[in-house]
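Team,

Forwarding the record for the chain on the shared tracking sheet. I've put the sequence and predicted structure together so nobody has to dig through attachments.
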Amino acid sequence: MNNEKNKNFEMDETTRMLENLLFSNYFLMRKTFPRIAPQEIAKVVGLDPEIIEDVYKMFLSVAEPEGESVVKKVYFQNEEPMILAITLATWIKSNNPQAKEPNMQKWAKEFDLMLTRDKRNFNQIKTIIEFSQKDSFWRSNILSPEKLRKQFDQLVVKSKNTKITIDDSLL
């Protein structure tokens, strides 16, 4: 009887530890492994699949708001959208050292939209970032990729009619 009580305590303790692990590593797991089957987790950690299933359901219900997709793109530093996000953030920081730190994944996503949906090329975007951050008017107005995207065509026209040195062969 005492042995069974210890087993239940250990199982509860293990479940709690697994639950804490799942919740504490939620964002990493969400980005790395969007949907891990509970049976697979059970094999790895050596627990009863039913316990894993319950924890997994609880994890998903708390972690995922209704209607939101689990699978989200993660941008890495060597990918063009992230390079552009870092470029803009660096320019903004050099113009205003007090600027708040941006959400780089969100910024990279916006640059990804510029590259894919808007069919802009990497060098063109980079050139317009440079222009927007060198120009005294635009540097105070282009403080995010959203603003850059919205004003992109206007920035291209303005950059061609300016004394600021940029490589306009890319435009």
